[in-house]
Amino acid sequence: MKKSFSLLLLAASLALPAAAQQDPKAGKILDQMSAKYQALKAFQATFTQTLENPGAKVKQNINGDITVSGQKFRLKISGQEVINDGKTTWTYLKNENEVNISDSDPDSQEMSPSQIYTMYKKGYKYNYVQQVTEGGESLDVIDLSPDNRQNDVFKVRLKVRKSDASVKSWQMFKKNGNQYTFYIKKFQPNPSTNAGTFAFDKAKYKGVKVVDLR
C-alpha cells in the first residue's frame, strides 16, 4: 500500500499480548463503555483526526467517517476508502484510482477500528486520571499504557462521558513526538447495513487499477 491510515495503525499498535494491571475505578468505566458498543449490531460515526507534533510545530486536521459491524468496517478519510468484510481488506486510493487487496487477519496489524473499545482488556495497564468538564459535559479521563515498552505508542488517553459511557475522544501519544487525537463529532447506533456495505464493488469505480497483494 502506498499509504496507511493512522486509525488502523492505532488499532494495530494496541494489539499486544501481555497481562494487564487493573485500576478498579478505571476498569469499571471501561467495562461499561465496552459493553455499550459491543451491544450494538453496528454503528456509524463521523470524526476529526488531529495530528500534532509540538516539537516540529506540526498540526493537521482531517475529517472522516466510519461504519462498523463486529469485525467488519468501511472507512472513508483523506482520499482513501478502507473496506473490510472480516476476511478481505480493500484499500482504495482515490488520487491513483487504485485498490489494494489483502487478506484480513485479526491477529495481524490489519485490525478493526472497533478495537478501541476492547483493547484495554489485554496488554495494557489502565489508570483513572481525573474528571473534567468540556463543553458542558462531564468526562472521565483514563490513561492506558502498554506493557511492552518497545511499543512506539507509550500512552493512550480516553475521555468517556459520565452521562452514557460513550467515548468523546481518544488521544495516542507516540515516542517520536506525534500525538493523534480523534474526536467523535456524530454517532449513529445501528445504522442500516447490508452485505454491500462491507465489500468493494469494482463496477462503481470506473477504470480502477486492482493490485492483489494476497
Automatic annotation (TrEMBL):
It comes from the Bacteria. The keyword Signal applies. Keywords: Signal. Pfam families: LolA (PF03548). Residues 1-20 form the signal peptide. PANTHER family: OUTER-MEMBRANE LIPOPROTEIN CARRIER PROTEIN. This is Outer membrane lipoprotein carrier protein LolA.
